[in-house]
Amino acid sequence: MSYPATYYSRTLADPTTRPTLQGVVETDTVIVGGGLAGLTTALELAREGMAVVILESQTIGFGASGRNGGIVSPAFACSGDAIAARVGAEAARALHRLTIEGVRRVRDNITELGISGAGSIPGLLNLRRFDMASDLHAYAAEFASDYGYEFTYLNRAEISERLVTNRYLHGLEDKQAFHIHPLNYLRALAREVERLGGQIFEASPATAARLATAKSIHTPHGEVRAERAVFATGGYTGPLIPRLWRGVLPIATYMMLTEPAADLIAMAIRTRQAVLDDRRASDYYRLVDGGTRLLWGGRITTRAASPDAIARDLRAAMLDVYPQLAPLRTELAWSGLMAYARHLMPQLGELQTDVWHITAFGGHGINTTAITGKILAEAILGQSDRIQMFAPFALNWAGGPVGLAVAQLTYWYLQAQDRRRERR
Ligand SMILES: Cc1cc2nc3c(=O)[nH]c(=O)nc-3n(C[C@H](O)[C@H](O)[C@H](O)COP(=O)(O)OP(=O)(O)OC[C@H]3O[C@@H](n4cnc5c(N)ncnc54)[C@H](O)[C@@H]3O)c2cc1C
Q: Separation of 78 CA from ligand 1 center, angstroms?
């Protein structure tokens, strides 16, 4: 199996591998990319009786979907204010409702498919490192009235019962959010696709595509002929479909896993809920392995750093919040690529007749792939036009190398702003 060394690839619930595509296969829909976007779309189509074939260049879940933070919570990578500025307040609220539906769909999949390997644990603490008390109360009240979505406000003392640090001033507890083992979740979706008759091929990169009328996707040893094609290649998108390639920026982000040390970790973290702060370069972390290890994520760069550099950087972030964890050793560090459009919103739509794309989920992909995969399937099946809600976020040129440089500079600028705000 070609997974990078991560906590998730070490703790697979089911090590099944899939064959490489050999020869010609015919199907209704061929999906390129075996991440959450591709698999969710495939699952929703297969649930409606459509024949699907997934082509994955490595192993399903090789990309961001199999190595992420595992936090499932509502929202897009793009802020609610930025969405409203583009589409208006009402349309922005409708879009946010979709992200809540996405969270519910992940939860329902876990329950209905009995995915015990997902190890779902409830709760997310969304914490502020800057003092803006009135904002948080207003935010919680707005969510309760607009979406019927309840947060619990936590003051500093309440936070310190769970987290032994003075970094957090206050925050919101989201009891409906949860965290999972994303790779085990994804692999269970794949099993369900197969149970419904879908076929999945690994080590089968799409290397050429004929898309004029009937669709034909070539791999090194085979070909899939289909009525339609869906491209779901995320941050690993190559030049196969130039418009798609130019439309997204690959952005790297990082995670590390500590050694098992339950007693030491309990001197800092006394909750199984996941934690996320409000900085642009936010830290997010949670306990795994029955609460014995700490999984810590954060930072973004436009060029993937080495595992050693990642570990150093994330460790510094961890010790900034919890200096008492200095003796805690880092065991593993890894990176993954996310796809971002310039406007930070997902990209889904029809590139040309019967050629669809679904990508650009940024750092908020578990809930958003769950709902947009469903919406894309509805569009393909002619069941709804909910896909039109994403029409204002068209697939535009993301700027290539200049776009990457601008993204990195923007990130550094926002990081500096975070530091200034925190010093005040
Ligand atoms: C470190 C990290 C932490 C994150 N934390 C969170 C989190 O806590 N919560 C959250 O909601 N989101 C998180 N995200 C974001 C989330 O993981 C992504 O948005 C989401 O997984 C994207 O799914 P995808 O299917 O679009 O892309 P991917 O999962 O990257 O899948 C794309 C797949 O396409 C394949 N592929 C590419 N080209 C070809 C080809 N030519 N032929 C065949 N296959 C091809 C790749 O091998 C890959 O498997 C995180 C991301 C990272 C990297």
A: 17
User: Given the CA of residue 367, which atom of ligand 1 is nearest to it?
Assistant: 11
Give strand pairing partners of 27. Answer: 226
Strand partners, 71: 179
Q: Which residue has the tokens 């091929």?
A: 201
Ligand 1 center–CA 162 separation, angstroms: 31
* Ligand 1 midpoint to CA 131 (Å): 34
The four Cα atoms 65, 81, 344, 93 give a dihedral, to 10 degrees, of 60
Amino acid making up residue 154: L
Other CB atoms within 10 Å distance of the CB of residue 124: 26
Say if strands 23-32 and 222-231 run parallel, antiparallel, or are unpaired.
parallel
The pLDDT, as a whole number, for residue 408 is: 67
| Shortest-distance atom of ligand 1 to CA 335 | 1
> How high is the pLDDT of residue 133?
66
Q: Tell me the average pLDDT of the chain.
A: 93
Instruction: Say if residues 191 and 116 touch (Cβ distance below 8 Å).
Output: no
Atom of ligand 1 nearest to the CA of 238: 38
Quote the pLDDT of residue 420: 67
> What are the CA-CA distances from residue 292 to residues 46, 122, 259, 288 (Å)?
39, 17, 8, 6
| Structural domains of the chain ordered from first start | 7-405 (3.50.50.60)
